[in-house]
Amino acid sequence: MSQDHLDGNSAGGALRDVFAVDLTAATGQCSGCARTLVLAEALLYTRAPGLVARCPGCEEVVFRLVRAPGRAWLDMRGMTCVQFELPAGS
């Protein structure tokens, strides 16, 4: 039997590169209404345990971010995809 995959640890470098960028300039597609938006256009609510961003078109939640000392939780299930620029040389 041939092994045609690696374990998730192999994505560590690529993920570290990805999350070193400013995601507010990223574009994404709302999974609720399929609107394409720049994340900076989202309606941001801060009166919660973290940040809740809603689509400006349909007001569905597009992402949630909660931080605690030494860790963070990011839920982006409200986006079908996110596109962003990588730093030069990446």
UniProtKB/TrEMBL annotation:
Pfam families: DUF6510 (PF20120). This is DUF6510 family protein. It comes from Streptosporangium oxazolinicum.
